[in-house]
Design brief:
This protein is mainly alpha-helical. The chain has ten helices and no strands.
Length: 189
């Protein structure tokens, strides 16, 4: 009987710990969406490192990035990926970091990993296009700007950059078509 009670106590205790971790994560996410970075950080830091989820690490990375502590953000994004190789947002955010620091090959690598996990995301497509422009791969840039528009045709910048890619490819008629689209979208903003 004592073994049963001890086992039941341990199972119940573990369930409470799990519920506490899950609740802390949920609260941290809510505080982050309310732009309360201090409370977000405080709640996640209450969770033992080994018990943090990829989402927890991602939030920590975002808080670090918002505080302009980019090396710390990169560390947190990499921890998110270690926890879950399918954490496309961590790859995307790493891509943004590398792009902003002129490391276009690393940016492309991370955006491509994000794209493989979430190919219908227009912003991933757009960022692959922008990175391809930096790498002077105009055909790839054109393709990914087009994909971005395919998934969300209401973002003026997608049209503008596709027009730019067409202009660089000496396809002036197509470039003008997308500039016209850009201008129409800007008028409606």
């Amino acid at each position: 009987m004592k073994k049963f009670i001890l086992t039941a106590f341990l199972i119940l205790n573990c369930a409470v710990c799990f519920a506490d971790k899950t609740e802390l994560s949920k609260q941290a996410t809510a505080f982050y969406s309310d732009n309360n970075q201090v409370k977000t950080m405080d709640l996640i830091l209450q969770i033992n490192e080994k018990d943090r989820t990829a989402q927890d690490w991602l939030l920590l990375g975002n808080v670090m990035a918002d505080s302009l502590k980019m090396e710390d953000a990169v560390y947190m994004y990499k921890k998110a990926i270690q926890k879950d190789k399918k954490c496309f947002k961590a790859y995307y955010n790493l891509g943004n970091y590398y792009f902003d620091h002129g490391k276009y090959d690393e940016a492309m690598e991370n955006y491509t990993k994000a794209y493989k996990l979430k190919p219908e995301n227009p912003y991933i497509c757009y960022n692959i296009g922008c990175t391809a422009l930096k790498l002077n791969d105009l055909a790839k840039a054109k393709l990914y700007f087009y994909k971005a528009i395919m998934y969300d045709s209401n973002v003026p910048e997608f049209h503008y950059n596709l027009a730019y890619a067409y202009k660089q490819l000496k396809k002036d008629k197509l470039a003008q078509q997308y500039i016209d689209n850009y201008n129409k979208l800007m008028e409606n903003r």
